[in-house]
Amino acid sequence: MNNKWTKLEKSWVLYDVGNSAFVLLISTIIPIYFNYLAQNGGVSETDAVAYWGYTASIVTIIVAILGPIFGSLSDFKNFKLPIFLTTVLVGVIGCSLLSIPMNWLLFLFIFAIAKIGYNSSLIFYDSMLVDITSTTRSDKVSSVGYALGYIGSCIPFIVSLVIVLFYEKINMSFEVAMALAFIITGLWWLVMTIPLLKNYKQDKCVENNANFKNCFKNILINLKDMSKNKYVLLFLIAFFFFIDGVYTIIDMATIYGTSLGLDQTMLLIALLVTQIVAFPFAILFGFLSSKIRISWLLITCIIAYTGIATFAIFMQTQLHFWILAVLVGMFQGGIQALSRSYFAKIIPEEKAGSYFSLLDICGKGASFLGTFLVSLFTQITNSANKGITVLSVMFVIGLVIFIIADIGVKKSGKKI
């Protein structure tokens, strides 16, 4: 196996480093700032958690509608890169616009636009995996992408965190400190994207003329293909369930901890520790994928997340949150990276855009269901702890269906 990293592989990995800064901001500083704006606007803490979750759900629906169209168009020759660039710019500009002073409702709206851009960009980015590396290296490249994303995102985050935590000592207002954090993150994201924009070339594509008629035709053909390869469909259903908890935890960790009355500074530092812990463990899972079948590694990650979600139900103290942060860091990179590379190996490479758009729909659909149900149960029970109980059930369902899907992959003769 060739272990030398190509220029294209390095460029692809750098985008993970760039967009992960925005993800880290979403899971740490942005919810706290939204909570600050919401309280200033007279919104209760319970409603703030719910509104945050509902916004994440709305974003999911929009991306789920756009995803198949974007994915199908990106399979046509020379279409993937321009649409990818458009989605990146929507995300970067949206992130930067959050620096403008505004009320909590307008903030949520602009945040939703930025997140739509980010989520949409991942459809094209993930599907590029089949172009930028070989099948034998995809597990390693995918895992290193997540690993460097975790550790690389800490650079702009630490700068932003210092500004936000010590804004008074450097003679600025809290609002100005937050504005700088948004601008720093947006610029980091954009700069890290440039190498991929310069070096990527779409090798695997469909030959039909690019138009909306052929676009929807491709969607129908792909759905028909999946009815023949049921293991792909089963994997998507399994992914829908087990990634539910992963994305919901990412989206709602900080605002969940804040609602329990935990110290905000310690929450931010704990989530920074999550990124640091995730770095070596994502590398470890990439290494193990060459020694152990990916399905066994994914099963391990899903079982671990089931335990994490169950533990979160009983979380009350700062120590509990720290334990949760470390446990999430251990398995977050593995479950995301290996799911991406596993899927890349069981689909037709020339239709990667379309298939990855379906994977994204399942992932974001799960996020929609997870954030919606957690928000709903939180409001019904008036307890954030009780609201989180639904996630454990989703992980168990995902585990069972994934095992069934993997049996189908083995029978098909696919080399995973």
Question: Topology of this protein?
Answer:
Layout: H1 7-27, H2 29-40, H3 45-74, H4 80-97, H5 104-127, H6 129-132, H7 138-152, H8 154-165, H9 174-199, H10 212-228, H11 230-259, H12 264-288, H13 294-313, H14 318-346, H15 352-381, H16 384-387, H17 390-412
Helix pairs in contact: 1-7, 1-9, 2-3, 2-5, 2-11, 3-5, 3-10, 3-11, 3-15, 4-5, 4-9, 5-15, 7-12, 7-14, 8-9, 8-12, 11-14, 11-15, 11-17, 12-14, 13-14, 13-17
Keywords:
416 residues, mainly alpha, 82% helix, single chain, 17 helices
Detailed description of the structure:
This protein has 416 residues and is mainly alpha-helical. The chain has one domain: Growth Hormone, Chain: A, CATH 1.20.1250.20. The chain has 17 helices and no strands. The chain has helices spanning 7-27, 29-40, 45-74, 80-97, 104-127, 129-132, 138-152, 154-165, 174-199, 212-228, 230-259, 264-288, 294-313, 318-346, 352-381, 384-387, 390-412. The chain is globular and about 60 Å long. The chain starts with 6 loop residues before the first helix and ends with a helix.
